[in-house]
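2024-03-11 09:14:02 INFO worker-7 job=invfold-0412 stage=load source=structure_tokens
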């Protein structure tokens, strides 16, 4: 604490001119609000008054679960029975209790109870995991005033409205608070809102002056007050309220509000009053309830069930009509059935009633057309798939010890059908760690180390040149293409430990060598601007003696670390001075210089620059300025543009390398000039009125002009490991990538270059709103911009041209309105990449909804903060990054990964596998159930539509449960058309999912047709062979049980051989399940036949005595099985030979080991198996190679022209 008290003496508010301003007379007046929306009353330090109505507010407990103890049963039952098949089987199970059912009640109810129970158990388990993560958040501790000036730790969930809370440095705010005081004597505190809006710059908050004396625990002993304010709402940037304290009323605004899930930075502690708790807090108001998501395949399954149900009803109607005809016209002749004494089910005189009753019997009998076990098999398969995702070592982050996590298994196959990815920036693509990497001083570029973007691009270009552009490269020659290499000595780097925020390498500036440079005086000024022009505070670590900097932005921190490493260490700040320790090679010890801080013009997003007016040790007054290059360059003096051309060239290079740049400049002032300006500045600063900001800007412009350019900085916003490569691979897989960020446009564009979402030569369409108060005029202007941009894209003739759409949050507000959103979407879809800046959490969700509903394709949203929860829940698939900034994104997500780069494997490998597995599994399920169910119908017709089943009840019960379930589960869990390595090498394979090649209606009806064919081949040859023929030694013909068992044997063999042909990847477990299922059938038949006839019925010793000794039984099994699988075998042979799919070719190459023996062919195939893309490194490399080819062609043309030109005639001598 002693350091905190020392720091507290500094009045931080003096550092700000634009961020903090005095209140106007109107603003000092209390807000007057009546009516709805402003009814909240908070009694400060009296939380007990909010425990009863009408002031009973929400608790601070939050829940992100789908169910609770009360709602689980009804909601989970609804989830299960909104599946059409389950609803049908529920009806069938109820009817099975009646006399008209062809099967026993147990055989209908038991499978349904098992299927629904297992699915509900899975839902409960997944929701329990969400609940445990909620518990983790709700159990965080905060210091709360217990009365008498005593503060104790208390779980977040027990915090109430009206509580006084003490939050310490680097802690999250547990609720929405009114700031009362801080460790700084003027009530300033710094807040990091990255978790809310994605912005990395710290926000400055300031308490009311009247509460500044509440600076320690005991001050709250008798503290009371009342807050009257707006009701809970989702607006993060507004707040209206009044604070009644000490018989006075003070107006409140957003600058005094600390929002839940933002973090306290650079401030030892703050005190605050809880205003909004739990789901009333603004961040939770921005979130939506956990939606119930279903995959496209599952939704399509419902339509297939409708088709099968239609077939089922049709067959049942045919059966009932047939039964009615038989009953009316043939029943009277069947005297042995005693038609004169028949009940209504068989009464020839009431054939219509008999038909109606038989219709119900038929609906139950043919129920095997609709596979009840399909759902439970899919549930089992998806849970096992999720386990493999969770245990994938390639998606395990060693640094944090975090594995991937499939938080729900319902959407596994949806991972393989993603069309558009909507990504957050800060914390998702970037680490929010800035490293000083390069600089340009006096027109000379310094810094030899390459950025991550340059490294990855060089590596990619080298690989591309080796792979598919060998000829082009050889034509160009080595001098034509220079892949940037990194000149760093590993030995040197190993000797020097890495410095956070400083990755600069260049011996010309390090260790005092800058003094030998030609423009040493300019370099000196450059270093001093870095060390002096900022608002940071140095903090001495008394144990190590080192100084750490508490800066408002990571960029500013990186500049100070760079200045220190160059020998200019910012060591101390007082109310009026900045002290810098300067080290020179000639001096033995550092020289401490004082710079008197006369004025500070702080940075704002509107100004895009920051300046300090200082007096150096020689009495010279200097204006030191840093800002965006476009802003600085327009303020340069005529004699200050000496280095402009060279610096501009370097800035372009840095931008291409994905670096964030700032320009540095200065100006010398005469004493009289400064005095005159300062008088104007003080007049503007102390003015109170609506035009104060305008006056300040005008005065600032007066001094921030006629600057002399010094140089530029290039800072690398460290991308998360592997992000550029991941984006490149996803682009090659045909995925579109949108970035939605709360950051300003310049930052987002820099990151766009860093990730290769943007590149040089790409045409940027920037849509921004003009400063016009008329809403209609602004809206019309934005519509015009979009229309012109769409027209420009339409008229573009170059097939390789790429467009990038960049739009800010204000413009997006209009673009998302109903009458403009389709125009915006059409424009965005035509662009190669889309970046939305300054967007709120609500806008992120709205953009996601627009893309999802407007394109009708699968969307995936990925983010790491509470500001991403809306879009994560809105997207078809939500992926959370398990970063350091809270757990909200994880709790709202469907899948969680530790790094963005793991998204590549999650989609391209697991998504591809899961989609194909589930699609093939469902098609096969319908095939086998149609093949099985239709044989029941054929026998019905054969047996006068009597409702008699040809199969034993136990056969039918075990068909889906045991005899055919394990092979289909092994298909869904272990099938691999290609290995994971090949998936990553051939990313275009992923497009089989978005194009839905394995689950379109053509393929579904093809499998259904195969099932129809199989049922015909199984039934009729079996009937023909066994109907009138003796098949036992004593001349006996086959009875119904024998024929039924023969047919069932053929079905078991046919469907298991069919699935064996479907599989591409065989391991021992597939062999065990497929052939083990066939063996299990014979084993069951043997064991079942040994039971007493009371249990086994007509199957008593059927295999041992009747079927096994009969050669025709074995002959029929082989003949029918071969006939069943022959058409599929012919089909896949024809397809692989004449119309092979991508994975067929790869399988063949791998089988014949061509990938090892013929590397050139393998490389060529890899190059072809890539979606044409206009983003990513590959697109950047392709563009560069096209550019080189054009240069080569131009050079050849010029050479040819010169050769064709006649030589000048020589003069006669």
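2024-03-11 09:14:09 INFO worker-7 stage=emit residues=1213
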């Amino acid at each position: 604490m002693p350091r905190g008290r020392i720091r507290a003496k500094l009045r931080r508010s003096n550092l700000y001119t634009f961020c903090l301003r005095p209140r106007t007379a109107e603003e000092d007046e209390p807000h007057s609000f009546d009516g709805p929306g402003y009814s909240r009353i908070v009694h400060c330090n009296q939380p007990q008054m909010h425990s009863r109505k009408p002031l009973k507010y929400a608790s601070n407990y939050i829940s992100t679960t789908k169910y609770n103890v009360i709602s689980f049963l009804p909601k989970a039952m609804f989830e299960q029975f909104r599946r059409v098949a389950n609803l049908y089987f529920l009806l069938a199970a109820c009817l099975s209790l009646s006399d008209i059912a062809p099967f026993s009640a147990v055989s209908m109810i038991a499978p349904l109870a098992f299927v629904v129970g297992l699915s509900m158990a899975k839902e409960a388990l997944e929701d329990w995991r969400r609940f445990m993560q909620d518990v983790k958040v709700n159990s965080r501790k905060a210091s709360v005033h217990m009365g008498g000036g005593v503060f104790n730790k208390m779980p977040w969930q027990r915090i109430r409205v009206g509580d006084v809370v003490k939050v310490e440095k680097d802690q999250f705010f547990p609720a929405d608070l009114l700031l009362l005081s801080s460790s700084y004597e003027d009530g300033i505190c710094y807040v990091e809102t990255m978790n809310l809006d994605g912005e990395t710059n710290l926000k400055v908050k300031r308490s009311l002056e009247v509460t500044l004396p509440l600076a320690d625990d005991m001050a709250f002993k008798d503290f009371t007050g009342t807050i009257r304010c707006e009701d809970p709402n989702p607006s993060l940037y507004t707040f209206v309220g009044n604070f009644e304290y000490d018989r006075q009323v003070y107006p409140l605004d957003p600058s005094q509000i600390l929002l839940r899930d933002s973090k306290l930075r650079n401030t030892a502690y703050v005190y605050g009053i809880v205003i909004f708790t739990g789901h009333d807090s603004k961040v939770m108001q921005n979130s939506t309830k956990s939606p119930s998501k279903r995959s496209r395949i599952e939704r399509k399954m419902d339509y297939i069930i409708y088709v099968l149900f239609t077939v089922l009803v049709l067959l049942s109607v045919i059966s009932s009509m047939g039964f009615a005809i038989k009953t009316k016209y043939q029943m009277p002749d069947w005297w042995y059935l005693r038609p004169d004494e028949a009940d209504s089910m068989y009464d020839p005189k009431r054939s219509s009633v008999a038909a109606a009753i038989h219709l119900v019997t038929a609906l139950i009998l043919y129920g095997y057309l609709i596979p009840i076990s399909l759902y439970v098999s899919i549930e089992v398969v998806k849970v096992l798939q999720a386990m493999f995702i969770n245990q994938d070592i390639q998606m395990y982050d060693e640094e944090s010890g975090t594995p991937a996590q499939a938080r729900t298994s319902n959407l596994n196959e949806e991972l393989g059908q993603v069309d558009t990815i909507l990504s957050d920036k800060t914390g998702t693509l970037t680490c929010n760690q800035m490293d000083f990497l390069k600089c340009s001083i006096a027109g000379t570029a310094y810094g030899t180390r390459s950025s991550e973007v340059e490294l990855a691009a060089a590596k990619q270009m080298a690989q591309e040149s080796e792979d598919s552009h060998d000829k082009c490269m050889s034509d160009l020659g080595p001098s034509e293409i220079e892949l940037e290499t990194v000149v760093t000595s590993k030995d040197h780097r190993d000797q020097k430990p890495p410095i956070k925020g400083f990755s600069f390498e260049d011996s010309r500036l390090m260790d005092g060598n800058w003094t030998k440079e030609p423009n040493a005086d300019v370099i000196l000024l450059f270093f001093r601007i870095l060390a002096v022009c900022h608002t940071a505070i140095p903090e001495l670590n008394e144990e190590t003696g080192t100084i750490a900097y508490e800066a408002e932005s990571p960029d500013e921190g990186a500049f100070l670390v760079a200045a220190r490493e160059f020998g200019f260490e910012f060591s101390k700040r007082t109310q009026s001075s900045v002290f810098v320790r300067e080290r020179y090679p000639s001096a033995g010890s550092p020289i401490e210089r004082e710079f008197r801080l006369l004025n500070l013009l702080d940075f704002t997003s509107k100004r895009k620059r920051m300046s300090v007016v200082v007096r150096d040790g020689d009495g010279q007054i200097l204006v030191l300025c840093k800002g965006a290059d476009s802003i600085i360059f327009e303020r340069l003096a005529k004699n200050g543009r000496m280095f402009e051309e060279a610096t501009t060239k370097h800035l372009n290079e840095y931008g291409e390398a994905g670096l964030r740049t700032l320009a540095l400049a200065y100006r010398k002032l005469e004493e009289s000039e400064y005095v005159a300006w300062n008088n104007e500045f003080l007049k503007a600063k102390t003015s109170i009125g609506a035009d104060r900001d305008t006056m300040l800007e005008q005065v600032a412009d007066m001094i921030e002009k006629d600057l002399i350019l010094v140089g530029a900085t290039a800072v690398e916003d460290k991308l998360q490991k592997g992000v550029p490569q991941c984006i490149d691979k996803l682009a090659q897989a045909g995925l579109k990538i949108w970035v939605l960020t709360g950051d300003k446009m310049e930052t987002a564009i820099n990151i766009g270059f860093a990730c290769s979402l943007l590149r040089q030569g790409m045409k940027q369409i920037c849509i921004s709103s003009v400063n016009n108060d008329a809403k209609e005029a602004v809206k019309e202007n934005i519509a015009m911009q979009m229309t012109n941009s769409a027209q420009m894209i339409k008229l573009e003739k170059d097939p390789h041209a790429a467009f990038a759409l960049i739009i800010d949050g204000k413009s997006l507000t209009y673009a998302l309105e109903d009458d403009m959103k389709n125009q915006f979407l059409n424009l965005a879809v035509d662009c190669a990449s889309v970046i939305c800046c300054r967007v709120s959490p609500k806008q992120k969700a709205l953009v996601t909804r627009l893309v999802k509903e407007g394109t009708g394709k699968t969307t995936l949203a990925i983010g790491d903060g509470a500001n991403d929860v809306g879009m994560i829940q809105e997207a078809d698939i939500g992926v959370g990054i398990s970063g350091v900034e809270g757990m909200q994104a994880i709790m709202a997500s469907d899948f969680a990964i530790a790094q963005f780069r793991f998204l590549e494997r999650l989609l391209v490998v697991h998504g591809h596998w899961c989609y194909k597995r589930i699609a093939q599994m469902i098609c096969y399920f319908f095939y086998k159930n149609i093949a099985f169910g239709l044989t029941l119908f054929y026998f019905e017709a054969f047996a006068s539509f009597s409702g008699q089943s040809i199969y034993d009840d136990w056969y039918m019960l075990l068909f889906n449960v045991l005899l055919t379930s394990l092979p289909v589960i092994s298909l869904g869990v272990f099938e691999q058309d290609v290995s994971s390595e090949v998936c990553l090498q051939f990313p275009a394979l992923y497009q089989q999912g978005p194009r839905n090649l394995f689950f379109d209606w053509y393929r579904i009806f093809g499998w259904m047709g195969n099932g129809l064919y199989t049922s015909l081949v199984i039934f009729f040859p079996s009937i023909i062979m066994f109907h009138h023929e003796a098949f036992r030694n004593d001349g006996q013909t086959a009875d119904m049980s024998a024929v039924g068992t023969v047919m069932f044997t053929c079905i078991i063999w046919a469907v298991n051989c069919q699935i064996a042909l479907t599989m591409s990847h065989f391991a021992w477990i597939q062999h065990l399940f497929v052939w083990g299922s066939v063996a299990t059938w014979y084993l069951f038949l043997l064991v079942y036949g040994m039971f007493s006839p009371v249990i086994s019925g007509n199957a008593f010793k059927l295999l041992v005595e009747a079927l096994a000794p009969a050669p025709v039984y074995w002959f029929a099994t082989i003949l029918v099985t071969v006939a069943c699988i022959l058409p599929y075998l012919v089909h896949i042979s024809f397809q692989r030979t004449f119309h092979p799919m991508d994975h067929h070719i790869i399988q063949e190459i791998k089988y014949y080991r061509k990938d090892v023996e013929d590397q050139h062919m393998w490389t060529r195939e890899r190059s072809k198996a890539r979606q044409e893309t206009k983003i990513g490194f590959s697109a950047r490399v392709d563009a560069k190679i096209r550019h080189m080819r054009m240069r080569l062609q131009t050079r050849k043309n010029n050479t040819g022209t010169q050769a064709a030109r006649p030589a000048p005639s020589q003069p006669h001598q």
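2024-03-11 09:14:09 INFO worker-7 stage=report msg="The radius of gyration is 38 Å."
2024-03-11 09:14:10 INFO worker-7 job finished
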